[in-house]
Amino acid sequence: MKPTLTSINWVRKYDNLVVLRSFSKAFGLAGLRLGYLVSNKSIVEYVQRVVGPFNVNSVTQQTIALALEKWSYFEQQIKLVVDEREWLMKKLRQIDGVKPYPSDANFILFKVTKDGLTSATVTQRMENRNVLVKDRGHLPLLENCIRVTVGTRNIAEQ
Q1: Whole-number pLDDT of residue 103
Q2: Which domains does the chain possess?
Q3: What is the pLDDT of residue 158?
């Protein structure tokens, strides 16, 4: 996988920028609750004064070390999610009454735009077909929006 431009690259340009990343999604390690921070030296030093010296337990440290040793496997998994997200985005764009929003995550947010339909109604209909999505229509600025997690194509086509 070739390197991509990410928000981490902006840290050198903007001295007030803090980028937070998690191992949760790409590594499938949500239960460990481990992430990292990238920023300029003065911000990092300030955060280090606030965070305790033993804020990551040894089991988490060893698990992350093993995951990083297997980076090529996770790189393949990330590529799979990206490919499936692009496929799902294409399919959502083909549906009349759906407006998907661009995504760099493992999910896509889309708006239900068809008259007479609400995100709650669509969510219920999807659940009736054993397709689990999250209705976000009740949240500020997300009226009639639904979040769908990127899965594998064989599940999506069933």
Answers
A1: 94
A2: 7-69 (no CATH), 79-156 (3.90.1150.10)
A3: 46
Under 8 Å between Cβ of 139 and 111: no
116-152 burial, b at 16+ Cβ within 10 Å, e below that, comes to eeebeebbeeeeeeeeebebbbeeeeeebbbbbebee
Tokens linked to 152:
């594998």
Distance CA 92, CA 86 (A): 10
Would you state the structure tokens that stand for residue 72, as one six-digit string?
């090529």
| DSSP assignments along 44-71, one per residue | HHHHHHHS-TT-S-HHHHHHHHHHHHTH
Burial class (CB in 10 A: 0-12, 13-18, 19+), 34: buried
CA 12 to chain centre: 24
Segments in 6-115 forming alpha helices (H): 41-50, 58-69, 71-93
Q: Which amino acid is at 38?
A: V
Residues written for the chain: 158
Q: What does pTM read for this prediction? A: 0.73
Q: Which of 128, 90, 124, 95 is nearest to 111 (CA)?
A: 95
